[in-house]
Write a structure and sequence with these properties.
Layout (H helix, E strand, L loop, with lengths): L1 E3 L5 H11 L7 E3 L13 E8 L2 E2 L8 H7 L1 E13 L18 E7 L6 E4 L4 E3 L5 E5 L4 E3 L7 E11 L1
Antiparallel strand pairs: 1-9, 2-3, 3-4, 3-5, 5-11, 6-9, 6-11, 7-8, 7-10
Length: 162
């Protein structure tokens, strides 16, 4: 796992942050956070930006600074996730993005809050804006809600590295 703080130039990051935290950004309701989660009241809002070899969103080009920086051979999927505030941090359970060692996952944290990404090996990464965490997509990890902000927003990148 690699962790990059201040991943993007501040101007590039602020453009992304401004769009994804805007109340007009189109988020879509999902009744489950992971396919394995069985928590009552488990839901999130997502926005698919890229899948099936095609940009799926008019906001895809906004992520060009990230795509240029990760230097990938091909993109598998890019998805933004929004979790809402809860009374206590809810851990949504371990999952893997893909069971394929060729695929890398990168998480770009859009806002700072007390949510986190936890890894089965015990590592825990706090949600800090403009931090990027990169790891193999077959590594079990779990996201959480936050209690100190109204929303927790991350963008999940799945790709094959050069």
């Amino acid at each position: 796992m690699k962790v990059y703080k201040n991943f993007l130039d501040i101007e590039d990051f602020n453009k992304i942050k401004k769009v994804f935290l805007n109340s007009d950004f189109p988020w879509f309701y999902n009744s489950q956070i992971t396919t394995h989660s069985k928590l009552l009241g488990d839901f999130q809002f997502t926005h698919i930006l890229y899948v099936d070899n095609l940009a799926q969103s008019n906001y895809f080009n906004l992520l060009k600074p990230v795509i240029d920086k990760i230097n990938c051979l091909s993109i598998v999927r890019i998805k933004a996730n929004l979790l809402t505030k809860t009374d206590s941090n809810v851990d949504y359970g371990f999952h893997t993005d893909y069971h394929d060692d060729r695929i890398t996952t990168g998480i770009l944290y859009i806002n700072t809050n007390n949510g986190y990404t936890k890894f089965k090996d015990g590592n825990l990464e706090k949600s800090e804006e403009n931090k990027y965490v990169e790891f193999n997509s077959s590594v079990p990890h779990s996201g959480s809600s936050c209690t100190d902000e109204n929303i927790r927003v991350v963008i999940n990148f799945n790709y094959i590295k050069c």
